[in-house]
Amino acid sequence: MSMNRVFYIFRHGETDWNKERRCQGHTNVDLNFTGLQQAKELAEKLQDFQLDVIVSSDLTRALKTGNLVADKKRIPLIVDSRLREMSYGDAEGMIFEEAVKKYGKELWSQLGSFKKQYDHVGFPGGETRLMARERFEQVLLELIDSSSHQHFGLSTHGGAMRNILHSFLPEDHPLLPIPNCVVYRFEYEEAEKKFVVDPKPFIITDIKVTI
Q1: Closest CA to 9 of 186, 144, 175, 179
Q2: In whole angstroms, how far apart are CA 176 and each of 158, 164, 183?
Q3: Separation between Cα atoms, residue 184 and residue 203, nearest integer Å
Q4: C-alpha span between 122 and 124 (Å, rounded)
Q5: pTM given for the model
Q6: Contact between residue 207 and residue 22 where contact means Cβ atoms under 8 Å apart
Q7: Distance between CA atoms of 33 and 13, rounded to whole angstroms?
Q8: 97 has catalytic annotation
Q9: What residue ranges define each of the domains in the chain, with the CATH number in brackets?
């Protein structure tokens, strides 16, 4: 019997590199104190929602966030490296302003636009938007095809979230806000064979990031 699948996708808690406005990508930066508190609050807020399983990026900041949610709800957690942030290659570790200065405002602007015409843009040594999005989509399609679960939590990263969510929205849709531990809800409609996104944040944590 076919059924719609519901996904709750959330960003990890704050890291020191978030505070310092550094390009993280695949660099394995841990949660800081604020990020850990945000993740604990997220677990509390998701407690009353139907979730069957958490699927998490393997990077520590997402994995710790996902584990807190899974432990609180006493549900399984699956680790999948395809839910990682986009690789920023040679730009990883750079403060945003440094990356703009070195690689140019045009590249930075294109990377932040999430329009299809910039799908093949990326930092030297890193991934393109298309490469990162395609591996993420593979996970979604595999879950739909092979899992008996209906409600999924996805613990991932800010850029990865925008990349996948905007691919399901009209191209001219305003950029979605992605603060740490924000949750968005989207659904796979089996009859229509398509993903439908609610563009309003489903949950926002009350613990604010200090910059």
Answers
A1: 186
A2: 10, 11, 11
A3: 7
A4: 6
A5: 0.95
A6: no
A7: 9
A8: no
A9: 5-197 (3.40.50.1240)
Collapsing DSSP states into helix, strand and coil, what is residue 56? strand
pLDDT at 210 over 70: no
Structural element, H or E, at residue 109: helix 105-111
- Render pLDDT for 71-101 as a digit per residue (tens, 0 to 9): 999 999 999 999 999 999 999 999 999 999 9
CA distance 149 to 50: 11
| CA-based torsion, 159, 125, 100, 17: positive or negative | positive
Write down the catalytic residue from 14, 85, 92, 127: 85
- Are 15 and 36 in contact by the 8 Å Cβ rule? The answer is no
Options 12, 26, 157, 166, the catalytic residue: 12
Distance CA 47, CA 63 (A): 18
DSSP 82: G
Q: Cβ(25)–Cβ(169) under 8 Å?
A: no
Is 151 in the active site?
no
Do the Cβ atoms of 3 and 64 come closer than 8 Å? no
> Is the distance from CB of 51 to CB of 152 less than 8 angstroms?
yes
CA angle 63, 89, 160 (to 5 degrees): 45
The C-alpha atoms of residue 168 and residue 163 are separated, in whole angstroms, by: 9
